[in-house]
């Protein structure tokens, strides 16, 4: 498993980044609202979503599967996409559906809303649809979601994840609690990478090089503050 995935936090308590956002998300999780996470690639948006899902549903969301779905378009064309899901959530990338994203997203939301699973442990009566790369959603798909978001609010919450807030229509934004996810600063970058290197100490060939702030800062600059990219670069450097 890649370092970036192996050391990704699954709970807020173990997440160094965005501690000021954690309590806000825990509170919002109790409210009846959709969420819109926006920030640069590698800023921690997806990790926040994973931690929030764990906060809401418990460890059950870690038992995921990859499913293949087929959808019929109005023109009778078959569109096939893959999703990652648990009993309580589903993750979809609308770009896989191309110009037919409206049909795919609408059907997935309806399906999740109607097949909600009661989590006895925390009495949640809704499922979550996570839409990654939401900036790729067509205007038609976003326009159609307005009524869907309101209609199924009681049984299905939508978590949008995007790197461009300007690509999300005002109608969708107005129906969401918006969470800005900033890129990590220098101190956070150093703290996270130093911790990962400490955990991987036995597997690192040149530990002195990795424990040098100059090396970490070079990763930060070359990755353009993209934390995931920096971790992948560090792992690649360890193999050369």
Automatic annotation (TrEMBL):
<dbReference type="GO" id="GO:0005663">
    <property type="term" value="C:DNA replication factor C complex"/>
</dbReference>
<dbReference type="InterPro" id="IPR027417">
    <property type="entry name" value="P-loop_NTPase"/>
</dbReference>
<dbReference type="GO" id="GO:0006261">
    <property type="term" value="P:DNA-templated DNA replication"/>
</dbReference>
<keyword id="KW-0235">DNA replication</keyword>
<dbReference type="Pfam" id="PF13177">
    <property type="entry name" value="DNA_pol3_delta2"/>
</dbReference>
<protein>
    <submittedName>
        <fullName>Replication factor C subunit 5</fullName>
    </submittedName>
</protein>
<dbReference type="GO" id="GO:0003689">
    <property type="term" value="F:DNA clamp loader activity"/>
</dbReference>
<dbReference type="InterPro" id="IPR050238">
    <property type="entry name" value="DNA_Rep/Repair_Clamp_Loader"/>
</dbReference>
<dbReference type="GO" id="GO:0006281">
    <property type="term" value="P:DNA repair"/>
</dbReference>
<dbReference type="GO" id="GO:0005634">
    <property type="term" value="C:nucleus"/>
</dbReference>
């Amino acid at each position: 498993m890649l370092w970036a995935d192996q050391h990704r936090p699954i709970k807020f308590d173990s997440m160094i980044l965005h501690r000021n956002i954690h309590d806000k998300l825990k509170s919002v999780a109790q409210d009846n609202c959709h969420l819109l996470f926006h920030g640069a690639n590698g800023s921690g948006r997806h990790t926040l979503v994973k931690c929030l899902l764990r906060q809401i549903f418990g460890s059950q969301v870690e038992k995921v599967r990859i499913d293949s779905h087929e959808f019929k378009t109005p023109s009778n064309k078959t569109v096939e996409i893959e999703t990652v899901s648990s009993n309580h959530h589903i993750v979809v990338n609308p770009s896989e559906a191309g110009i037919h994203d409206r049909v795919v997203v609408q059907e997935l939301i309806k399906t999740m809303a109607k097949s909600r699973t009661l989590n006895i442990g925390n009495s949640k009566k809704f499922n979550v649809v996570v839409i990654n790369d939401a900036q790729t959603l067509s205007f038609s798909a976003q326009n159609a979601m307005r009524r869907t978001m309101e209609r199924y609010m009681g049984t299905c919450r939508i978590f949008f994840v995007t790197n461009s807030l300007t690509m999300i229509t005002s109608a969708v934004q107005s129906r969401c609690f918006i969470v800005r996810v900033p890129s990590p600063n220098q101190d956070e970058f150093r703290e996270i990478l130093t911790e990962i290197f400490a955990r991987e100490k036995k597997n690192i060939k040149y530990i002195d090089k990795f424990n040098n702030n100059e090396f970490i800062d070079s990763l930060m600059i070359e990755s353009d503050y993209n934390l995931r990219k920096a971790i992948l670069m560090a792992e690649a450097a360890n193999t050369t």
